[in-house]
Amino acid sequence: MIRILIALLLSTQMAAAQNFSALARVDPSRTAIKSDGETLVIDLGLSQPVPWRIYTLADPMRLVLDFDQVDWSALDTDTINQTEQVTGLRAGQGGDGWSRLVMPLAAPLGVSRAGMRIDDVTGAATLVVSAAPVSAELFAATARAEPGLPARPAVPSAPKEDGPLVVVIDPGHGGIDPGALRDDVVEAELMLQLAREVAEGLNRAGGIRAVLTRDEDIFVPLAARMTIARAAGADLLISLHADALEKDLAQGASVYTLTEEASDGSAQRMAERHGREDLVSGLDLTGQDDRVATVLMELARAETAPASNRFATALVTGMREAGVRLNSRPRREGPLAVLNATDFPSVLLEAGFLSSSEDRSTLRSPAGRAAFVRGITDAVLTWAVEEEMLAPLKRN
Q: How far apart are CA 105 and CA 98, in angstroms?
């Protein structure tokens, strides 16, 4: 009887996983291309969230949306095009399952806002894009070359057991998943720049080896990020992000640690935003079933959660002392996917809000990012000393 119940449980889990990872489908009832004055507004309804990216191409002028596997069959490209700014609409499948929506433009436009919203109840997604007129010179300067498919990330070798403290810096998003966008600022690009500078600062501190989960603008699935961290022998993971709200309602940095329930509305939003960045995540436990994997991960987190909380506290202190502007509530908790997948101490640092002009200015300036580098480096050093002092107590 027990074996039958286990078999039913596993078959149900497999069916759910297959349904969740199926192709995203376009919902025509939630899809529209229209003009709001001179601004082009695109609403693309999808049955589920998928990684995506947006960019412009020249000669001829085009606005392009790339997705990881979208079924376009329900999209009528002849009737959905309801604006003179888009001279035609083409949708199709690229190589290796990637999908593309191409919008030829009658005049130069630049993306001013873009983001994917996820329905709390249904899990359906809506990609919302706004593109405003720009000069021909600016369009030509910002249009990119035709991008290829995302490259595979390099996996670093694990250090020796007696080697330095290994800190993995995880710049969020990348490639087909740009993250938050506001004006000409892209979260994925900005966090990669900050991650490189943080890694350099940590490596200069001595006794620390910094590892990046990506060092270029590519999409790295969550499972691959964890593989990179484990292969490097991670002692700590810091995931870097910067959100954008509909209005300039929040500003400043905050630090998240993992809990089963969100501590507040902001933490819940963060969990929803990052909960579906990747459809496959978790510890690689070859030969183990889902129940065993869950138990092992819970045991690992029971060991690492206190260390994560101690680092989060040190990080808030370090950034405050370095002059980083903090959110009014800089310590938050939530069921974040990237932290849930780790079996080592980890935090998510929201470096600010791209919807805040002050935060954007800070994160785009070398001096502003330098304060983050100082604060993070000081926090890592302080935390490492504290963990070393606690080591004898952990062994007893």
A: 22
